[in-house]
Amino acid sequence: MIDLIIEKIEKMEKKHQKKETVRSSVVLKVYRANRRARESAHYDSIEVPVERWTTVLDALLYAKAYKDSSIGIRYSCRMASCGSCGMKINGIPRLACYTKVSELEGSTITVEPLTNFPHMRDLVTDFSQFFAHHRDVQPYIQNEEADIKDKAKLSEFMQTPEDLDKFLQFSYCIKCGLCYSACPTVATDTKFPGPQALSQAYRYFIDNRDAGGKERINIVDDRHGIWRCHFAGSCSSVCPKGVDPALGIQLLRGHLLGFSKNEKKVADLQERLKKD
Amino acid sequence: MAMLRESQIMKIHYITGIAALFVVAAHILMRLIMPYNLSLEYDNVIANYHNMPYVVLLESILVLIAIHGFNGLRIILLELRQSKAWEDGVTVLTIVAMMAVIAYGTRTIIVANGLGFE
What is the pTM for the complete model shown? Predict the structure, then answer.
């Protein structure tokens, strides 16, 4: 039995190795533009040495440290937790710190700023509109029963594992903006909240500790709201944390159309019946 | 401006879309009860308009497709620009166009049927 498992693991490793291409160096084709300095957009090609474990962010930081210190780039944690280093790598929105050079095809890697965001400089984009959409859906628990000023009233909001499962995957969102960049609706409709905000609306809507569902629904049930999603699914395919925003949007639509049973209402009714 | 919530409009959109599939299928099947070219001859077409269940079917196709189609057009136009004036203008225009198409189509059905003209 153990031999079989080891054999399987070895096979999987071999498969994985085939996908990786070991190179000693790559050429980074970096998008450069600075509107304030009236610099026109162009690409700079910079050759950087790489190892098997080098990420695109490592390669960019090497280029910034040893080749051209003026490259504009935003990053922080280097471990796919902060969501700062989102950029288009070979045309696909990805986190630079989470993309290994060896996983990419070709010896030239094109890095560009995220689309659907106002451009600032080089690889840096403005997230103000994205965060405004996120704020608009009220991404926090609203519960009148919780009086945070009165410590005596503070108590735990008990949840079962089943309750948690309903929203857990959506709470892994790191607000990196990759889904927003990949969304075809956002590209044409700037008022559309985008997959991130809509999936967060669902995340709090379905949380049984939250009582602000109605208000949140009123916000997303708008001309430019949840119904403008074309269900392209590109948001889910680019998410580096495995969140499925398209699923969240469809589930929330189901609730709006009355297809999904409102478990909160059912729970309320059951509680009332118990009290009676 | 908004008399209906977007979710209510979309419910109507989906229901009319699904219902249109059935009535259009029935309409196409009616062409198959005789050779296709015969079914489109003048006398047969007029006979169709005098058949009351068929008239109801035609009117329902007209209403369902007009509602579904013009709402679809409204959605497409809404995504082109984002301003209150544009959104309200598009909504009013599509409603007026939808009503005009339904009115003209209904008139055609009434005239062909001969209702009120015989």
Answer: 0.85
